[in-house]
Every structure is written in structure tokens, then in C-alpha cells.
Amino acid sequence: MRKQFNKEQQKEILEGIKQDLDVSIYAKKEFDSFQMAQIREGLEANLDVSLYAKPEYNADQMWQIFTGLDENVEVSWITDSNLDWQQMQQIRLGLEEKLDVSKYAKKELNWKEMKEIREELLKESTLC
After folding, report:
1. Tens digits of per-residue pLDDT, 80-90?
2. Fewer CB near the terminus (10 Å): N or C of the chain?
């Protein structure tokens, strides 16, 4: 294990072993220690990590999906690895706020544009 993984990765793997988690899900050289931590924390929380335990997601993207799962929102809206973590965040926040995210969950919009639309939708929803 020492040659295959760096010190930080080894720490995440050992932490999972201590907690009796299935470390085989994240003990892979294609995951950095930050990605491993997100997957380990999802396992600790009994979340379906298969939705984000993929090398195409960076740790920030994984965190957005983890948080969505933890908040019980429909994460299929944010599992597109072409979305950056900030776009994912705006969509996730809209889902948590029970907004119609279809109005802005489009990868061609940057996160600031998404935020403006989300905030406008939120304002409209509070006026009703």
C-alpha cells in the first residue's frame, strides 16, 4: 500500500478500515486524498456513494453531490461531471429551496447566471 498511495491517501484508507467501511470503493490510485475523504464520509453517512465515487468528479463536485444526498434532494440534476462545483451548488441550493431548477440547470449558464436566476425564483416564490 505504501508505494501505491501517498501519505494522505493512506490516512483516508486507514480511517475507513478503522470504521469498518468498504474501503475498496475508494482505495484506488485514481482518487486523490480529498476525493477519498468525500467518499469515506458518504459511506459513514450511509449514503449511496456510487452516484459520485467516480474519478471524473473532483472533491468539490463530490461534496455537492454528497450534500444533496444528505439533504434528500434529487441529485440527478447535479451528477453531470461537465458542471463545475459552483454550478452544482446553485442547482442543489435551488432543489433544497424547492424551486423549479429546470429554468437554470443548464451547463451553458455559468454559476453566477444560475445564482441570479435562482435568487429571482426564490424571491418570486416568497411573494406567493
Report:
1. 999 999 999 99
2. C
